[in-house]
Amino acid sequence: MKLFPSSLLWRTLIVVTAALVLSQATAVYLLQEYVTKPRVTAAIRHFVSHLKTINAALQTMGPEQQQAFLVRIAEQEGIRILPERGADRMQPATDPPSVQLFRERIQDAFGPQAEVYVRGADLAVARPRLWVKLPSGAREYWVSFPRGRIERDPATAFLTWGAVSLVLAIIATFFIVWRLNRPLAELARAAVKLGRGGVPPPVAETGPSEIRAVARAFNQMKDDLQESQRERATFLAGISHDLRTPLSRMRLEVEMLEGKVDAVAQRGMVDDLDDMNAIIDQFIDFSRSEAAEPLAPVNLSELAHACAERAARSGVQVRTELGQVPELSLRPLAMQRLVDNLLGNAARHGGGEVTLRTTLEDASASLSVLDRGPGIPEKLVDHLKQPFTRRDEARSGTSGAGLGLAIANRVATLHGGRLDLLPRTGGGLEARLTLPV
């Protein structure tokens, strides 16, 4: 299980979110230390000074003036001043930093007996009013005031600010990564198609300068590869064409030696010329571009049956085991060359009867060519799929240019499939083509 996602989008989102959270935490700390605390301290100092003024005013006023003064204070400032009664049920207020600081200030101003209370009936309220017992001459008063006079509650603002910033960061991250991923995804699809032997359209050179540079380099690489393939095809086709005429002339001359040379030697020369023609045919097949052939619906079992009949007419013993396979979107001629090459390899190197089998399993269709030859060691499988590679000691044949398996593997890759060379149960080789359905 991966704890850290692999996609660019989620990695960028995690990094941006972590940086934003750290930035917000730092900002909250600095705001608390250098803005909120000094403002709360100043507000408490000012309010305690205000209470001292109120206390001094009450001590100099008569009963009627006090009553009018208390009404005016309540209306204008929200400060309720009530005569102290013995039945008042008060509890000491909890000790958040602002209340503790306020308690210290009023004790400095009015003596150690001063305390901050909350009324029991107000405890169900989220932010109950605070109460202070204020001595004023011969009487004592309860002074009730909103907590906002000594507290600041920036939590809501901080949460709102953080949530909005996080949403904006996520939206910005999605937009930036989407702008980056779109050309990268197009580049990845083109690279996959090119790797399978196809010819993708040029990748759009859009986005940031680095992405444009990568797209430009890919387009140049694609053009260079296509030019190299064209030159190789032209080279191979030219050599193959030039060799056809002297080989045909040599075959004619060998056949005209009937009765003049040993029959066995003559037959050997004819076989050698046939092998050379077969090699030239492989060169021509290898130089073709299967990607240029259009896709068409093909029944793999029907194509295998046609290839088996054609191989049987040329003397190959073929037994077919064809299953029910749905039509696939394939290049018919390219697939025909693949099956013909596998049948030819099996007949040449395996000897005896060749089995051609098609099956359907889960989400893939497979075509297998099985023989009873010496097989191929596992360590040589990938090597023998490369062009112009042969290991005669691994298989019992001696002729060929080493292109049959390379052509078959290239066609399989072009169709999004896989060519496996597996040991056959009981001895021999199974060349299995697996295609997605």
Write up this protein.
By secondary structure, this protein is an alpha+beta fold. It folds into 3 domains: 146 residues, Sensor histidine kinase RisS, periplasmic domain (Beta-Lactamase), CATH 3.30.450; 104 residues, Helix Hairpins; 144 residues, 2-Layer Sandwich (Heat Shock Protein 90). It is 56% helix and 16% strand. The protein is built from 10 helices and 12 strands. The strands form 3 sheets. Strands 1-5-4-3-2 form a 5-stranded antiparallel β-sheet. Strands 7-9-10-12-11 form a 5-stranded mixed β-sheet. β9 and β10 form a beta hairpin. α1 runs antiparallel to α4, α4 packs parallel to α5 and α5 packs antiparallel against α6. About 1% of the residues have low confidence.
Question: What is the element layout, followed by pairings?
Answer:
Layout: H1 8-60, H2 63-77, E1 80-83, E2 90-92, H3 97-110, E3 116-119, E4 130-136, E5 139-145, H4 155-195, H5 209-255, H6 263-287, E6 296-299, H7 300-313, E7 318-322, E8 327-330, H8 332-350, E9 354-361, E10 364-371, H9 381-384, H10 404-414, E11 418-423, E12 429-436
Helix pairs in contact: 1-3, 1-4, 4-5, 5-6, 7-8, 8-10
